[in-house]
Amino acid sequence: MQFLYPIGLLALAGLIIPLIIHLWNVKQGKTLKIGSIALLGESSRVSSKSFKINDWLLLLLRCLLLTLLAFLLAQPYIKKIISGKNKTGWILVDKAMLLHVFKTQSRTIDSLIKQGYEVHDFNVGFEPLTLKDTADHQTKQSNSLNYTALLYAANQFVPSGTEVYFFADHRLNRFGNELPTLNYKLNWIPLNRTDTLSSWIASYAGKKYEAKSNPSNTTYEVLNSGDETSINIAIHEASGIADGKYLIAALKAIGSFTKRKIIINPASGKADIGFWLSDDPVTSTFKSSITPNGTLFQYEKGKVIATLSAINVDGRQIKLSKRVVSNNQLEKIWTDAFGNAILANEKVNNLNTFHFYSRFNPQWNELVWDGVFVKALMPIVIQDKNAIDFGFENHPNDQRRLSSRQNAAFQSSKTESTIKTTQNEALGTLFWIAALVIFVTERILSFRQKPNYVKS
Predict the structure, then answer these.
(1) Whose CB among 169, 229, 255, 413 lies 3.0–4.6 Å from 262's, allowing a Cys bridge?
(2) pLDDT 10s digits, 394-437
(3) pLDDT in tens, 12-29
(4) What number is the average pLDDT over the span 291-308?
């Protein structure tokens, strides 16, 4: 038994009151009527006192009553363990795939339904489904949210500890960056897909690529290998700062991936993009070295604060240790966990300016160690009006699947979360009933005590 407000037990100090009453038992004298009092003088009043407990049962009842009242003030409760098993379980399947699942997994699903399992749509809301819903499967497209988000959201709908059978494929592009923690037991039944090889045409920054995908990987091959103009990038790095090496490594990776020629600090001509890696204000000379309508990426100077937070970049959370305080209302590109700007953007004097409130330095954050660093810089370096997450896009023909090792890690992370849960059950009603019974008993015993009369 536990107490919601243990301070209420201080009322137990009131137990001393009935004890004092019983110990300080004053016996008052009786008045006797006689025939004549003329010859009697006035006598002094005499009272008798006894420090002796005469009625132990009444004392016990009164002390017990005060104890119960003190417990009621403390609001007692007990923790009940709720079993993780339910009488029925859930079947999760995307409504758009319902007909296909019933055709290929009919024996398994029929067996589960006979056991009392409920069929639910694997989409926002997790609405119940029936066999009649297979008729309109073509009227609804597959969900756009990834499996990670939906499986986590199901925690709010699926009773804790419920057995859940999930019918879906293991396509890698349907997963987020983090594995969700679930309150139910997940049994993933993979769907057999015959189209394990596919291809499509992707366009990015004026170039066309043929993408070929299989369960292991997706590759891109340039189709129009024309002579695109090179990308000139100017980098200014203040003395004592070694951030440029991380930036240059990322730029080389972007050039290798996109097959675009990137020239760093060209000997002649203007730069398309300028990176100002210094706490000093950007000089007018450096700005003039950037072509009109070009891009300027600059370190911001200001009050530096230490923080235990993260940079939100493309759905990932990168550890953040230090940042510069940002007070402007510019468009936020990257933010920390509290919504403060880490990278902001504005148009200034024909320059597309990015204000960076951190540094490309592991002492400030772990961005340069994460693969998302290259992806996050790509839209700044390879500018495209119709930009997409090229190479990272969620294409419907992407056939990549979870590896056996990844799938094992995903499944093991779920079994640990299907544990017993507890629920608090208040005991106030029981204590009130007990207090009422004791109070009635104490009153009955008190009135039954008969006074001793003195006969004359």
Answers:
(1) 255
(2) 677 777 777 666 665 555 545 444 445 556 677 878 888 888 88
(3) 777 777 767 766 665 555
(4) 92
pLDDT at 448 over 50: yes
First-to-last alpha carbon distance for the chain, in angstroms, is 59
Read off φ and ψ for residue 411, nearest 5 degrees: -70, -40
Are 370 and 266 within one domain?
Answer: yes
One domain for residues 237 and 362: yes
Q: Do residues 235 and 373 share a domain? A: yes
- Chain-centre distance for alpha carbon 50: 68
Is residue 257 in a domain?
yes
Under DSSP, is residue 71 helix (H, G, I), strand (E, B) or coil?
helix
Indicate whether 98 and 58 sit together in one domain: no
How many Å apart are CA 130 and CA 133, to the nearest integer?
A: 6
Q: Is 387 left (phi over 0), alpha (psi -120 to 50) or beta?
A: beta
- 211 within some domain: no
Closest listed residue to residue 270, CA positions, set 245, 295, 288: 288
On whether residue 201 sits in a domain, the answer given is no
Residue 53 φ/ψ, nearest 5 degrees: -80, 120
Distance separating alpha carbons of residues 202 and 117, to the nearest angstrom: 43
Exposed / middle / buried, residue 345 (Cβ in 10 Å: 0-12, 13-18, 19+): middle
Q: Are 95 and 172 in the same domain?
A: yes
User: Of 184-193, 343-352, 364-373, 410-419, which gets the smallest average pLDDT?
Assistant: 410-419
Q: What angle do CA 34, 38, 44 make, to 5 degrees?
A: 80
**Rounded CA gap, 195 and 29, in Å?**
108
pTM: 0.45
Count of domains forming the chain: 3
